[in-house]
Amino acid sequence: MQLRSRKIPRDMVHHPVFARFYARMSVAADDRGGIAARRAELLTGLSGRVIEIGAGNGLNFAHYPAAVSEVVAIEPERSLRQLAVGAALRAEVPVDVVPGTAEALPVKSEAFDAAVASLVLCTVRNLPRALAEIRRVLRPGGELRFFEHGLAPGRGLAAAQRVVDRTVWPLLFGGCHTARDTLAAVEAAGFELGTYRRLRIPEKGVQLPSSPCVLGVARRPFSDD
């Protein structure tokens, strides 16, 4: 694994209460909310070296295809990182769980064939900087696979998302912002947007500010021109 020499300050992200809640909620959402199927869809067809941004408790690890030679999983929150280490030991592909943040990835430039961002870009403190870092560590032509909360296409829910983002939502849910326009941010970071689709999580029932999601792929261009 090609890690870049960079000292990571301890606990740059610290949400111990939310981490315990998320560890329980995410497993239930995978089992009953249909998210496990979306994880499998997100990772289908990947190969080579992959970096996963904000791996959480490692629920993606079981879905990586055998063609993936190595996963470097970045997770800044200590409690979730410990759970991710356990998930890595059960994975069928090699997974190395590493402390770090999306805005300062502790790896060399152009070292990965693909990057995975799964329900994490809503929580990073500086989205443009995080996407710039992802672009840096991908080889030219490398893929960014994303499955993210995002701004609703309709006015009503989008307005509600903006309100809760300015008030209680980030405080209650580990820094999550529901009104970020993921697609626009990915394009603004210099990626070439590929196929994507919008979906709801959960697919049925009450629609929450976090329900609108987007799942898709983007690529780092072969040329920066």
From TrEMBL:
InterPro entries: Methyltransf_11 (IPR013216), SAM-dependent_MTases_sf (IPR029063), Thiol_S-MT (IPR052356). It holds the Pfam family Methyltransf_11. It comes from Streptomyces finlayi. SUPFAM superfamilies: S-adenosyl-L-methionine-dependent methyltransferases. Keywords: Methyltransferase, Transferase. Residues 52-145 form the Methyltransferase type domain. GO terms for biological process: methylation. One of its GO terms (molecular function) is S-adenosylmethionine-dependent methyltransferase activity. This is Methyltransferase domain-containing protein. The lineage of its organism: Bacteria, Bacillati, Actinomycetota, Actinomycetes, Kitasatosporales. It comes from the Bacteria.
